[in-house]
Amino acid sequence: MASLSHRPLLARACLTENRLLKRSWANKVIVMMKILICLTVCFFLSTGTNAQDLKADLDTLVNGFYNRQQFSGSILVARKGTVLLHKAVGYRNVEQKLWNDTNTVHQIASITKTFTAQLVLKLHEKGKLNINDPLNRYFPDYPNGEKIRLTHLLSHTSGIFDYTKDTLFMNHEIRHPSTRGQLLALFRNKPLLFEPGSKYSYCSSGYVLLGLIIEKVTGLSYDRAIRKHITRPLRMHATGFDFKNSRNPKKATGYVDFPKEGSQAAPIVDATASFSAGSMFSTTPDLYRYCRALNQYQLVKQSLQQQAQTPVFRFGYGWVIDQIGGKKRIFHDGGIDGATCIVNRIPDDEICIIILNNYESPFIYEMSRAIIDLLHQ
């Protein structure tokens, strides 16, 4: 009977112990949640700090090139859809004391070739042409036209003489209007440098031919075809042709040397002379739209874009392909009187680096490499 009298007390003791255990576990859960929240906050604070540090480092790097008179222009650096740096330095017009800004319009020279190549790929996809077609399908009387394919023109493996190596033309005629026939005459009857497809030799003539083929199959002028199929759909409204006659108030004056007091403006190459090999101008925001469209396969389907980004003697269709830091880099540079430029893409890391310089600086390559190294740290 005595033992029975203690049962309620024992039950109360057990209940109290259970409550204490539950409270203990609840407290542990609360503590763990607080720790987790603290760690999460610390992580994001650390990430934010790292991102700020990276932006500061990029800014310092660009300022260093500017202070050493190695860069004057506009630059954009982005990774995984986030713009890490977008700035401009230096004069866009020394005489008028106008500074470059992030919407300054620059000549992009041979980066034009990437647009030519992309439109050829798009027309291939639409069935308007075939990149494996021989050249004589479009130019029946072209010498050795049965041997040269559009893929050879795209990858600089055609063996055709490069008209930009004609010193008389480059020294005296390039700043004056040229007809399509005059451009063709500079290389059409020159002997092939090698058997098509057997070697690589950079050739602007091949891209002149591609521009003419674009005009033949679309029924449009080259510039209207690019606008219709690429720049207008991508809202690249500041991108255009014929820099010499452009009235855009944001247009950068080109200089041979670093723009400063007393600098002389460089003469401008006529757009008809550079044509589909180098006549375009653009801005960093527009070229970033272009890079994102390429990375997201908005212009042509993925399989065709990847074929274009497979190197043939280090050059794909319109782009140079190499390795940097163990990652594939896809890039193209440009150089013309008064301007140098480069667009770098590293697809694996979704990196895009656009450098537009309004003087003839050779430091765009060193600058690109320094930025890529910084992003890979």
From TrEMBL:
Top-level taxon: Bacteria
Keywords in alphabetical order: Hydrolase, Membrane
InterPro entries: AmpC-like (IPR050491), Beta-lactam-related (IPR001466), Beta-lactam/transpept-like (IPR012338)
Subcellular location: Membrane
Domain Beta-lactamase-related residues, every copy: 71-362
Principal subcellular localisation of the protein: membrane
GO cellular component, one term: membrane
Name of the protein described by the UniProt record: Class A beta-lactamase-related serine hydrolase
Originating organism: Pedobacter chinensis
